[in-house]
Amino acid sequence: MSFGRPPSVNLGFKPSPPDRGSFPLDHYGECKDTMTLYMSCLKTNQNDSSPCRHLSKNYLDCRMQKGLMEKDEWKNLGFRGEAAGEASANPAAPASDSSAQPSASSK
User: Fold this and answer.
1) pLDDT tens sequence across 52-75
2) Alpha-carbon distances, residue 24 vs 20, 37, 92, 95, 106 (angstroms)
3) Is 33 strand, coil or helix?
4) Rounded-to-integer distance, Cα 40 and Cα 34, Å
5) For residues 57 and 49, is the Cβ–Cβ distance under 8 A?
6) pLDDT in tens, 39-50
7) CA distance 79 to 57
8) Which residue, among 78, 80, 79, 61, has the nearest Cα to 70 in the 3D structure?
9) What's the pTM?
10) pLDDT tier, 24 (very low <50, low <70, confident <90, very high otherwise)
11) CB 97, CB 80: distance < 8 Å
12) What's the confidence (pLDDT) of residue 70?
């Protein structure tokens, strides 16, 4: 019992860091534009996130750049085999290396 002192005072309380996946809210709307684009994409695609993957990556990148979440590797965030700059590239373009083909035909 806490007779004589406010109930919020706990002498044995030790703060701990937030769990992984917990991060501050964007109170100042620093990444609101990218979040709005992502949410619009989800609405357009009946909540199928696959076509909106590049927008999700842009949103997470914005949060990391603004200090709203801890910076992490893309593979840990579910983006395997993708470089950091590929989020803004054309997501519909196939990932093929066409630079090797012209050298074979230039004999």
Assistant:
1) 999 999 999 999 999 888 888 999
2) 12, 20, 32, 35, 56
3) helix
4) 10
5) no
6) 999 999 999 999
7) 8
8) 61
9) 0.58
10) confident
11) no
12) 86
